[in-house]
Amino acid sequence: MRRRLTAGAVATATGLALLVGLPTSPAAAATIVEYTVVADDGVSASAAVAAITAAGGTVVSSNAAVGTYRVSSSAADFRSKAAQSTALIGASVRKPIGRAPGNAPAIEQPVTTATHGKPPKGVVADPLDDKLWGLKMVGADKAHRIEAGDRGVTVGVLDTGLDASNPDLAPNFSRKLSRNFAPDMVDVDGPCEVAGCLDPVGTDDGGHGTHVAGTIAAAANGSGVTGVAPKVTLVELKGGQDSGYFFLDPVVNALTYAGDAGLDVVNMSFYVDPWLYNCRSNAADSPEAQAEQRAIIAGMKRALNYAHARGVTLVGALGNQHDNLGDPLDDATSPDYGPAPYLRDIDNKDCLSLPAEGPHVIGVSAVGPSTSKSHYSNYGLEQISLAAPGGFTRDFFGTPQYNSAANNILSTYPLKVLQESGAVDANGEPTRPTVFKDCSSGKCGYYTYLAGTSMASPHVAGVAALIISKYGHRDWWRGGLTMNPNLVEQRLYRTATETACPEPRLRSYVQEGFTTAFDAYCAGPKKFNSFYGHGIVNANAAVGGR
């Protein structure tokens, strides 16, 4: 098992959030804590509720589709009793269980901006399309001549929200279908902006979800940028906190809702923690921690299976830990909320990175504009499905394009978040060269560069939406188009651009300024390998283009 060099190096590489501890004073024992409890397989709802009650908990709400329960308890030993119950798998403190992986590489400070050039051929170019190298790499510019998307195809953005006030997102946004499953939590999100702490749909106080949504389906309307599938419908599934964390309960509820609502595609640019890897029986973990991780694994697997069985194509980011998911590094970062993290030896057979390693998830790695695997991107023969543009600031080493923000992904972003970060002033004017303002439609939209597997995954989600638009059949019961997700997945793989491993196969990023900890070995033939999977997603080929 390969080992990380130092815990400090891990924190720098992954851009981890600040740790927020649970109360540890004597008074904390009487504090009411919320949990997400997962019932064991085959356990009835009545039996699960009885077991929860016996352990000292009160059921607040439940998701019968996957056997999860939101529970409150003041009992200090509730988690331990839940782990010991034969009717329950375990209890996870209702706390952040993920961080959007796109946040990690975004800590790189880009030093230049793109310059205007010729717009991609085959699409009515929006003003900033000349900066969208990713759109051209995946052939979406050419694909739009054949298929630009059907309004009856719905793509769920399971993320921090979606700023529907952006003129590029407003035309494609479905307020009717959108839902917020993640009320603000003051300990991680700060004071609530609205009464009840449930932000209205069409807002995004984190920014990450808005960026993802723009890559998928920014409208080709003469404003800002064009998305991969500019005529499909966007649905906000807010399952993440404003701060970029994710809870088990909102994520599971969002996935089951996607299945019930008949959504066609769901993009998942996040990972599940407080455990970077959820392990069933890691020797370093306490019995309660083991039960918690088993519960997270069970809950996520059930929710993913539920959505897939109801026609949802599931696309997920592989993550930004520059890790071979088939031979993972030891983990010195978990849990990343509550108790202090400690070193864990990660056994690939026992541990999962979720949702990327969950059932039916199309796992996506990130590449830069040269098609080099981005230094931060996870990879691995067991988990990877496809590669897509995710950005790599230090791509093109030794050329004028090296160390350029233009090597990252430009997409929509909320004005409020940009102003809070100082990237846009009080008058609405950008203060940084990496932020763009476009008012071509008569209403101003804002755009910024980000990098991460979070940015790669929505390219694939957009192509999946184009496939359904082109080859799906009309669903008269639910309305819109539909297509078996297995067929969508097969089409994505068959039409991807096969990309061979680099030579030498050991890709070093030392010349780009990174340590040898980022070195990655590419295994497998051109047809399928650990860096690119089946290849770089190809929108044009996917809809029948040449």
The CATH topology of the largest domain turns out to be Rossmann fold
Low-confidence stretches: 1-29, 101-123
- Residues in β-strands, percent: 15-25%
Q: What is the number of independent domains? A: 2
State the fourth-level CATH superfamily of the largest domain: Peptidase S8/S53 domain
Overall pLDDT confidence: 89
Measure the end-to-end span.
44 Å
Radius of gyration, whole Å = 22 Å
Just name the CATH architecture of the largest domain.
3-Layer(aba) Sandwich
Strand order of the largest sheet: 6-7-5-8-10-12-13
Q: Fraction of residues in helices?
A: 10-25%
CATH class of the largest domain: Alpha Beta
How many individual β-strands?
A: 20
Main structural class: alpha/beta
Sheet with the most strands, sense and barrel status: 7 strands, parallel
Q: How many helices does DSSP assign?
A: 13
Apparent shape? globular
Provide an overview of this structure.
The chain is an alpha/beta fold. The protein folds into two domains: 23-93, Alpha-Beta Plaits, CATH 3.30.70; 101-542, Rossmann fold (3-Layer(aba) Sandwich). Helices cover 23% and strands 16% of the residues. The chain is built from 13 helices and 20 strands. A seven-stranded parallel beta sheet has the order 6-7-5-8-10-12-13, with helices on both faces. A four-stranded antiparallel beta sheet has the order 2-3-1-4. Helix 8 (248-261) runs parallel beside helix 9. It is globular, with a radius of gyration of 22 Å.
